[in-house]
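Much of our argument rests on the idea that a fold can be written as discrete symbols. Part of our work consisted of pairing the sequence of a single chain with a tokenised description of its backbone. No coordinates are needed to read the tokens, only the vocabulary itself. The record that follows shows the chain in one-letter code together with its fold in token form.
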Amino acid sequence: MPSSASFFALLMLRMLAIVAIPRNADCERAMPRFVILTHDHPELHWDLMLEAGPALRTWRLAEPPETGKTIAATALGDHRLAYLDYEGPVSGGRGHVTRWDAGEYRVQTWTDDQISIKVDGKKTQGTFQL
């Protein structure tokens, strides 16, 4: 018969396994979300934001995405997930944002040197390469 300490550890492992196996459908979204926001500060530009774990990876675009067109994208710092659904003034007097497009994306390649995603938005469908 196992000691009481080892029995407790075994019981805890089994209980954790039972809790970890069932998954909540909300936690298993098929694809992460993206949003493209029109931002009017300091000059008009578009922010491409990709849901990546607890934050949004963000790039500033000089113009909205257009099929077959290469657009300069400047990496910015990560943003809060709240921007996936937010429209309105940006704190600190940094202008105003409005949603230009939103949807889901699928990662094709994501390395330190290259990101390639397939987006499925209301206005934008296709592959982005960053």
Summary: The beta strands are 33-39, 45-52, 55-61, 73-79, 88-89, 96-110, 115-121, 125-129. Residues 27-129 form one domain. DSSP finds one helix and eight strands in the chain.
